[in-house]
Fold each of these.
Amino acid sequence: MSLRYVLLLVAFSKVVASCHREEKSFPASEVSWEQRAWLDKTVGAILYGKSRVTPEEEKHLLTLSRAEAVDELMNRPEFYDTVLDFNLYFQGSKLEELHSGIGFSPNYQSEVLDSMPALVSAMEVAAGGDYFTLFDWQMPYFVGAKYIEPSRYARDPLKQSEIGRMTVEELQAYHWDQANTALKRIAAAFEGGAALTSVCSEFNDFDAIPSYIASISDLNLPDPFGSFANPSIEVQIKCGALGDVAPDSELRPALAEELSRLQKAHASLPELLGRLPRTVNQIKDFVRISPSSVPLVGDKNREGFSSVMWSQLENSSTNFNRRRAAYVLRTYFCDDLTPINIVAPSDHASDTHGSDAACAACHYKLDPMAGFFKTRGLGGIDFPSDKSDFLIHDDLLRREGKDFEDYLRSWKSPDAAREWNVGYVRSTTDASLNEYGEDLDDLFRIIRKSRESKVCLAKKMASYVLGAEQIYDGSWINHLAEKFHIAAQQGAAPGASSQAFKEVYKSLVLSETFGKADPEEGKCYDYAPGAKPSALPCAVSFIIEKNCASCHRGKGAQKGLDLTTWEDKGQGDMGFSHIEAGSGQPVPAGESLLRIKDRLSSSDSRLQMPLGRAMDPVERATLFKWIDSQLRETP
Amino acid sequence: MIYLSRFVWILVLCLMAACGQKSESPSELMAEGRQIGSFRGLVQIERLINDRLYRADRPLMINGILGQDLNFLLGSFTGGTGISQREGANPNPVNVLLWEILMDDTAQMIVGGIKAEELDESFQSAAKELFALNREDDASDELRDFWHIFMRYDAPETEREAWVAAMQSSGSDFKTEENPKRSVLQSLLLHPYFLLEH
């Protein structure tokens, strides 16, 4: 072959290569870089775990309008993983990864099943059902794949090499047989007249089959064997784990019941396991089971809190469930309990620091919220006062008799209109603004109904999609939340809440903020329809407009303070237009901010602003914190 | 040269992360007057690498390189279900150094993947074309291809052109090293637009 042919071949191959390159990547086309970047970002925001679509899909999506592209992407199954991921984020249960492996192991992490409201409400969106199951307390049961992490068998008597050769079904059958033998041993001891304390020990030995227990807990079954321990906590207490052994007259029936329950649960498992898929890689594949198909401890329904939440947020003998209350306020109402000393409570739980003036600002909301959990003790176990005469705290302190009554009396209402001072408190001066109840069913009914929870949902969605550090205009968030509020009204169409979720998510992805390649975190880009950018910093402009501007606007502003202005006071100091009523002299910026701060935080109803009107505690806290930050910057 | 380039990257990232400055939140971190973001986090970075470079059935696992005990320093949700929160994402001298070590090993693993043909077809092909060129060749188009598959549209076009120009400059690792795969990959793996949220 001559050199001429070689050169021709090289030149030809370069031409072919360059044509090929143009086709497969960054084609010079009419579609702008910005539009392509937006599409990639949108794919990431909607299709959980993906950073791109196939070149063919990309080409197609780029022919659509942005709204059409979003609609199309939101119809794909990966979007429902995004919903699940957001729900976990909303609940404060965000996982680094929903799936237990990339590519080769498509099952979901077992923790997903521990936050049942997050999963169920994502499934509802996928089915066009009720998204607000996210706010439900009583949940249905779902279980996942029968897959078991091999690491669960670390303490197993089987050799690792043997495990490697066995199928999941064979492993579960092996462990079922092991458990069966143990149960027979317990039954023989109990029925053979052995000392009851030794039967208690036999029950504890049942826990010595960790792989079997693990194979059950991986499925996250509804506590067929007691998810915290074996035997159940109630039986452990009677067996003397937390004090004296109960008399035989109490212990014998408790052990008999426990044995019967375990035998029933054990017998029901093969049929249940046989129904489960080997893999669950889309949320629609989770299997719903009837609680009655597996005998439960106390036949309780599945509850809205994860087991980890119960164990991490303890009800100690001194905190009286306040950690759980703070979690609810932070999670469902976006109220981080900023202590701004705004009100003093008229009454308070005894033996607590809440009566201290500095603490009262939080406790007026915290204590009534904690009351929803008043019968919940160790690990979240319910010790209902009409059935139980004692409660065990997470620090293992046991209250019984009068001590238990005194503890419950902390939440007794001085108001004859209701028995308990338990509720979601918006105002200490106007009880009609508050929502009262007694137990966790009531709490979640309040959450489902309240406007604040919808605003919180919209805020957290914005934070999830646009970034936690980004500032948003309050009118825009309220505008988005209004869709949820309408969907929560009585008479709303079935599936209205799922539709609202999709619409809000779509609005966020189509927002100016999302479209910016590098948005400034201190700047608002989006406003409610009809709302205009204010001269005020957007972090607080909506709050001021809503709560203050009706009196503090323009030339006739009360006390000469115009809160609708934000101007340079010289030397770089920023402040509101503020004229001293008597002298007509301008009030220095620092002094002006200090006065506003005092009026916001005063507990004196004659001074507290807005005068004679309720202000959302979260908005008050936000404005207070912002004024405080400005004061620190002002000499 | 590799060690020098590693040092330079640490320095650049430390500067980007306002190395040594005390700051309360990522939003307050500034570099040359510009606000910078926090790290995307180990899981997100692993996901990007796999989604863009690897075949779905042959994923790359980088979360074991430093050991599980250090992963929480790289930006992750900790605390489990109930009360999880993001930690370690705020750039600081320690996690910048850890990212450098991690991405150095990751680059080596990807080089191994190119040899073993474990990678996504388009990336494998782009890598072959780029690294088959002679030093004196104009590699602009091949570099753009390589960048695109790796970075997609994470960075503005101007960043891509700056990177291509840097790679094409006579003193770059790409032009001077006998086997430049690792340093080219490092330059992308440690690119702020790849590692940081924005």
Amino acid sequence: MARSMRGYFLRKLVYLFITILLIMTFNFLLFRIMPGDPIRLLFPRGASEETLQEWRHLLGLDLPLFDQYIDYMVGMFTGDWGVSFKFSQRTPILEIIPPFLLKTIFLSGVGTVLAIVLGVIYGRECAWRKGKLFDRIGSTIAVVFYSVPTFLFALFYIMLFVFIAPGWPLSGATSPDLYFSQMNIIEQIIDVAQHAFLPIMSLIIESLAGFALIVRSSLIDVLTEDYILTAEAKGLEGRDILKKHAMPNALLPVVAVIALNVGWIMGGTVMIEYIFTYKGIGYLSWEAVLGYDFPLLQAVFFLEIIAVLVANFIADIMNFYLDPRVKI
Amino acid sequence: MDDSIENMSAKHIGGTHDLWELFERGFALAVLVIMLVALAQSAVTSGAAQTTKERILTFAMGEPIDSPNPFVGITDNAYIFFGLVYDYLMTPDENMVNQPNLALEWYPMDGSMAAAGGTDFSNAADFPTHGNASDWPLGSIWEYNLTDDAYWNDGVPFTADDVEWTIEIQIGANFMTYWAYQPYTRWIDHVEKVNDYKVRIFFTDYDTKAPTPVAFGGNIFIPMMPKHAFEGKPSSYLAQEWTGYPAIGTGLFQGTANLRNEIVAKESVTMIRNRYYNWTDENGVAHGLGVVHKRDVQVDKLIMKFFSEESTLALSIRTGAADVGEILPGTYMSWKADASLPSNIILQTTLSPTQYSKEVVINAYEDAPGTLNALRLDPAVQRACALATNKQYIKDVVYKGLAEIGYGLITPVTPQWYWEPDDTPSTFNVYGAGYNSTSQKYELTGVVYSYTKPMKEVMSYDIAEANRILNAAGYVWANESGMIVRKAGPLAAARMEAMGFGNASALLNKKLIFEQVVEQEVFEDRQVGDFLVGEWEKIGVWISSDGGPTHAISLVNSATWNQLVYSYTYNTMQTYWSGDIDPNYLGYVPTSYALFGWNEFGTERADYDALYLKTVTTLDPTERKQWVDECQKWIYLSGSLIVTVYPIICFAMNNQTWEGWGNWSQHPGMTEDAFWSENPLFWHLKYKEKTEVPIDPVAILLASIVIVVIIVAVVATVMLRKKKKQQMLEEEEETEETEE
């Protein structure tokens, strides 16, 4: 009996909401059980116990754990995500995050699209030429790219560009404000593209190879199916069979991997953003971990988790459409 | 099926164009175009900063500014920012000698001089006690003549009101709240505004309120804040609520309208010249602090660019994207040895102008939590640990030779105050202990062991001497489950009780096992700690992270380190210190006045406090130097506060755009991080006119080859595919015709 779309959607939505609640609770508790007093980071030298106590009170850290938890949960749903402990002195979290988030969305968004498009084409062409020179070399390269840590590519690119294009920006998301604000819109777009080029190239190389390997393997399986032979027997051309009949089915596992990849890319940006001083959410989470900035860390983790969960949710819904077996 | 794939591919390569295929080609073309445009633009703009008419200096920096509020920010780069935006009464020059700044001159006074100058000692609000002029000795009052031609960057004139307000909010009831400048504010009773350009500061002891002469009246490094910007706010506002915006200072630079976003984004901060630092009124008369002091500054704008990765920072200097920055010793060494280093790259090393020193500390706080090992308090144990700390190795191996061996907290960067041990004989005695049946307690008896050496050698690395001391002090070797460690024998336990450090029976057989708390982020501290694990083992002191068999240092994050250290819940730890150019700042740290505040060593000794007081109250510089020496000697001989090295900082600068960097090892006051007020570097830097940007022809050639190869490859692929497709179609047509 086929399931209804609305029931499936609602059920997934309820699961999503419960998962978010559980993760929020875990997110809250995780940072409270870690050793160390975050207030001490605000005042490494010189502050008396009285001052520390004043600040604990100002930041609500002197409240019982349960009261802190209630404040946290209510705050998260009412847009009060608290203030940063360390970041520019008590700046509201919701003021800090947007510029960092935008950079990461741009970086990982463009990176993901590029990785998917290039990875699918790459994997498809390898599968189509299975066993031939192109496939043998291509697959080997993909495995190598998949195995090499992302940051090595980042360092390689930096060295390469210092040599071939010394003026190429090696850090930051844009030129300093002094220059950037004086550029026209075209120059600004080029400036942003230039700054993002090396981080994106570093970021996508591993996931591109991953997508390529998955598509190749999936497509080779699909191309052995009977209906492909049937299509060929009906006189369809090879490329038409590949694109219209083989690829849609071969892409099913890729949809699931894309969802998982969102989390991987969010994590992967930490190192890339750090190396290129491309200050997005990855860099922010690194800073927050080092700075013991509980509210900021909770917010960053929360956003990352939401991104992964929503991506999975969308993948589920897409699967529902793409794969008729889910409806059974 | 392999065959079928191959067959299909052979037969049907080049099917009909569909949307996906169009997308693929469009995508490839777009990527190619973007690469070409960006590469071309990169080549053209590689020196964009230099071609603009503004004279821009770019600092490459590591850790970003944590807060623009000078009462909250703690990173070094935050202090550099404070020095750029705010002014202090005086400013050290390139030789670390104070020069006038907001204050044009300053001198000590006594009560009668102040009374003659108009101070009303009968005013009970200012003088609730000590209301007689004669109560105030020379130096307990300092008078400062301020410039009448300095302006806040919002155009408001700077006056004595600002000085009075800035200091008054930090003292009295607010002393604990405003912790950042306590070495000065502890001694300040109140500030009297004499007129708009003259103030008197009255100094008393924070605890006794007794008027106290201070020698550091000419070295007060408190950033001056604009009173008019904070009127109506509670006195604790700056320390507790103010976010640091707008940053209104009298300093050479000010932030842009985008400062807040820049600080939050942590990528770069653009500083523009304070328009009121040097300006001309409608009558053509020049005004401003720069005019007052005739400081010719060519830097129009300063960009502080933050890098999270040091290799990127270093490369940005090499490529000219930044003009100067601090680099790691490893980078310095490899660049120094690099024969191909471009001639426009200058490498410099210097001791930190902020007296940077590194310490291994044995917790000296006697009332620390009872779970700690009380044996750490034994002077014999402390001395033995100090003798087992090989500073030469730390300098040579951990710091790769880029450090000087440390003695006291004051470093050679201030030679006028620096102390170095000499040939004077120094003796260390180990006293015995015996049970006094009359008093029914253990008491110290005569000397059971003594060694004498010249002062410069008495604390030098000497494992044999350390073992002799511990043997004499009653620590016996034990081998327990593989742990070769000393434990307190009857004599050691008796000595400890006699010294008031615990109960002999409880301390008997207690082992010399200490944890060493090290911040995991500080790589050098980890290396030193790992080294000491093996070294201290040679004298039977076991560094353990679990109080037992685990033979390792305790690596903790910064928050935990701070929590343990400032509550004195540690046996040993590693730390660093830095301070201003006057010995008051660093001398204050080990005092009992700074306990549970600045003092992280736990030292609470009346003899040190007395020496420090002498350094504060002795006005004669020559005599004061002797007391400063005594303080440093006390630290050196303490054993509990082991100053290992004074690290040398490495800098790289690119002189394509700026020259006049000076010699920073000879003039440390002009290094990039000389942040106590206005950095004299800005007075010396000269802009180099530069219109053409040299681009490496080899790089252009290589880039061109890469581009040409890409284009040729794409065109060839497309053409080949078209040709093949055509051939296939022709073959198919022929086959069909044949079949027909």
